[in-house]
Amino acid sequence: EGEVPEDTRHFFRLLMYSAYAYLWLGNMNMKCFPRLVQQALDFAGGASIDEYEFMALTTYCCGEFRDNLYTDPVLPAIQEEVGFEEGECLMVQLGAFGLG
Fold first, then answer.
1. Residue by residue, what is the 3-state secondary structure of 9-42?
2. Residues 42-94: pLDDT tens digits?
3. What is the DSSP-derived secondary structure letter of residue 58?
């Protein structure tokens, strides 16, 4: 237990950016994701996007979680279980674009 070395953090940040690039190129709804993350960080106090950590919170806490319609009702239970303080964790949620 200790501090994660900076080169390890840098490696994981590169993996995160690679995942963003893949999703950005392959999914139309992900085109707005980087800007939405930056807006959420600005709202939370102006943190840099380099301080952002990507995490599939619902998948981490609940296992395979494909239907985001259930996300909002489950979030209070996740917050209570994980112990996030208000404002400590922000969620940016994207879904498919409507077709009509």
1. HHHHHHHHHHHHHHHHHHCHHHHHHHHHHHHHHH
2. 887 877 777 777 777 777 777 766 666 667 777 788 888 888 887 777 777 77
3. H
